[in-house]
Amino acid sequence: MSEPKRKPNERFESYVERLIREAQEEGAFDRLSGAGRPLPLTGGELPEAWWIKEKLKREKLSALPESIAIRHEAEALVEEIARLDDERVVRERLATMNAKIRRLNATAVTGPPTSLAPFDVEAVVARWRARRGPGH
Question: Which of 13, 33, 34, 131 is 20–30 Å from 98 (CA)?
Fold first, then answer.
């Protein structure tokens, strides 16, 4: 699709307004995500780099260095394990996290150094079993 052309003697502002009106008429703005909600640009003073933070949140990305982000991920895993009912799943999650930790410990060259050790799977599983109590 070619870009719409400005009409002769059409002011830039009028041109933009015309493009918006035509897009509205064609339904280009119908059913957009966030329709009916205020733009994040409103509501007082905005923090510095607000748009970067919004994009990171929207894209589920992290601005943290890997060596710090892995710590948050490990903490979340500990909380998640407490809610799991299947030892096989507990072991799988620990194995996956340990692989990430080992990879990061072996390759991280930027950001703060990583000092996170892999989980002791047997010790974590033993604590998990103990918290569940007998008969589970």
Answer: 131
Which residue type is seen at 46?
A: L
Give the DSSP letter of residue 11.
-
Block residue for tokens 């903490």: 75
Mean of the per-residue pLDDT values of the chain: 83
Q: Are 74 and 101 in contact (CB under 8 A)?
A: yes
Cβ–Cβ under 8 Å, residues 116 and 98: no
| Rounded Cα gap, residues 19 and 14, in angstroms | 9
Backbone angles phi, psi at 111, to 5 degrees: 80, -175
CA pair distance 128, 92, nearest whole angstrom: 14
Segment 86-110 mean pLDDT: 91
| Distance in angstroms (rounded) separating the CA atoms of residues 91 and 93 | 6
First to last CA, the chain: 63
What's the rounded Cα separation, in Å, for the pair 80 and 7? 60
pLDDT by residue (tens digit) across 24-79?
Answer: 899 888 888 877 777 666 566 767 777 777 777 788 776 678 888 888 899 999 99
What's the whole-model pTM score? 0.55
